[in-house]
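Checklist before submission:
- one chain only
- standard amino acids only
- sequence pasted in full

Submission:
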Amino acid sequence: MLFDTDILIWYLRGNSNAADLLDRTRLRQTSLITYMELLQSSRGNDQNQRIRNFLSEFDFAILPLSANIGHRAAIYMEAYGPANRLDAMDTLIAATAVESDIHLATANVKHFSPIVELRVVRFKP
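Returned file contents:
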């Protein structure tokens, strides 16, 4: 399962529902975009290290971007972006899930709802 940024932030803030979901999931993956969003929200080297440790301890695979992911994300942006408030980062995360043929776990279901081929697992904090 591909974890969206929001769930990882919930976990890092101590949310028990996020911890339960991570514990129940055998294969944990996230996109390079999510990793970058986590680093962007950090406040320095200590938090960067905490993020790296967290991803390592939970054995997350960080899925890289590819030409196919970029192409699919561009299609999503053209088709759904402005009208649905779908931003570039979300299109890249969605395209990563679709191209990798895995579910996306997120609390932001509304962001991704226009993308019919995306399989979403709803998270409730």
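Reviewer check: The two ends are 17 Å apart (CA to CA).
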